[in-house]
Amino acid sequence: MIEPHTSTPTLGVARADGSHPPAPPRTAAGPARADLPVRPGTGRFLVLTGVFTCAACGLVYELELVAIASYLTGDSVTETSVVLSVMVFAMGVGSLAAKRLRRHAAAGFGAVEALLALVGGCSAMALYAVFAWGGAWAGGPRLFLVAFSLAIGLLIGAEVPLLMELIQRVRRQEAGGAVADLFAADYVGALVGGLAFPFLLLPLSGQLTGALLTGSVNAVAGAALVLGLFRRDVGRRVRWTLLVVNTVVLALLASAAALADDFERAARHAVYGGDVRVALRTDVQEVVLTGGPHRPLELFLDGRLRVSERDGRRYHEALVRPAMAGPHARVLVLGGGDGLALREVLEHPGVRRADVVEPDAGVVRLARTDPRLSALNGHAYRDPRVRVVTQDAFQWLRGARTAYDVVVADLPDPGITAGTKLYSQEFYGLVRGVLADGGRLVVHAGPVVPRPRVFWTVEATVRAAGLRTRPYRVDGRDPGSAAGAGRAPRDWGFVLASGTAPRLGLDPRAPRPRHLTPASLRADARAAERLRLPGLAASTLVHPRYTG
């Protein structure tokens, strides 16, 4: 497209008195050219660099919201859907709203970036604060998740029309070419941000500091573009206002980063109590071990109570002992890195080999080295019969060649979305492939009374894999558990399965369990059968049927 020649003086050329001529008014032909301190080619490169940086920061905010929301609620699919859908919708609304700012594109972009840096940078800390101190408020974290997704999406959406306006002010070009350049820089920035989040920010800075650092980069990039490249496009008062606002934003983000460790300790105290023994972030999850002189030991994985000294033996006896009533020379424990299920296995005479497949080496290391946890699991990992494999159970089973007499699936609740593949028909088909003739599988299938559909879906899925089942339940976690109070299940549900009809009993040669008898097991099985939900379909990898 050929532009008509005009007699407008060249922009950026100083008058004799050293001042610059005013920018020509915007016309129907397009935006006026900006009075740049650099050549148009350099200016265009700087704008596209700003697009790249802002896109990288925007994607980090998005991934940060998904990551921390999944940690707080345990439902990664739902939280990802909420964040993505709300944010994309808000981006469209933000783009429409930003049309009103196009006449003041430079000042508007500077204001948008300063606000985005503050909101996006503080989002992770704010969500964690709501989770820690507002836990009793049902739905609080998710409401704030929606609010932050909406706010960040609005601001990210407003960037696009403003940046389009700025790049056209640098050098007029055909609209399709400008859009292609803008989106290319945007998508490459999103790629870099998406890779930097899991491989750089999370391992080096963590979720809270990583978000604050991203906000600082966002603020600096926006301020540099406006106050550096387009400083002659905005008035003196606007320049000073943007300078002060961005200085305040950077000061707030820096202060929050300096206090992040203290904030995290205070939030952890609010969630877990004051006697946290160990708190670490492994490659798989956050691991917190609590327990003091007058408080039972408790192990939390990603914020969920996994083991309690108060009632851990009752749970693990109910999980392991019925499956060991038969041949048990070779035993496989899937999950159970804390070692408590392994303790129950090793108490049975005749066990010659016990393999543990646990994805988190950090949990196994803690179970070996922490004095109280190691004492609780009976120092099971010192036993020479034990072998540990640090690998995802599903992937490990695909290459397993050993036949086992007993398989103990001590895995997280099936209602946790990230673990639904470990409760799928395909998974149980793989387990069936490693069972010896007459071998038995026992599955922790979640609570029966509050979530009967989930429990009976597990049972239907095991049956769909070609195994015969015997479901049973036992009374659940002691509500006196300090950090688990209010979240404790009313009961625990289990499914015993085999190629033939499994018998529900106990091994008479093993030490007598503290909480189980053959009579109580039969009563537990009858109690579970009274709650049966018939006609449920099996859960598969491509059609998971569990709900949290």
TrEMBL record:
Q: Where does spermidine bind?
A: H316, D338
Write down the membrane topology.
Multi-pass membrane protein
**GO terms for molecular function, please?**
spermidine synthase activity; thermospermine synthase activity
Residues annotated as transmembrane:
43-61, 81-98, 110-131, 143-167, 179-202, 208-230, 242-260
Tell me which PROSITE patterns the record gives: PABS_1, PABS_2
Subcellular location field: Cell membrane
Q: Catalytic center at which residues?
A: D410 (proton acceptor)
Q: Which reaction does it catalyse?
A: S-adenosyl 3-(methylsulfanyl)propylamine + putrescine = S-methyl-5'-thioadenosine + spermidine + H(+)
User: Which SUPFAM superfamilies is this protein grouped with?
Assistant: MFS general substrate transporter, S-adenosyl-L-methionine-dependent methyltransferases
Instruction: Give the residues the record marks as binding S-methyl-5'-thioadenosine.
Output: Q285, E358, D392, A393
Transferase is among the record's keywords: yes
Q: Which family does it belong to?
A: Belongs to the spermidine/spermine synthase family.
Q: What does this protein do?
A: Catalyzes the irreversible transfer of a propylamine group from the amino donor S-adenosylmethioninamine (decarboxy-AdoMet) to putrescine (1,4-diaminobutane) to yield spermidine.
Q: How does it assemble?
A: Homodimer or homotetramer.
Check the record and name the NCBIfam families matching this protein: MFS_SpdSyn (NF037959), PRK03612.1 (NF002956)
Which protein, by its recorded name, is this?
Polyamine aminopropyltransferase
Q: Which organism is the protein's source?
A: Streptomyces minutiscleroticus
Chain's gene name: speE2
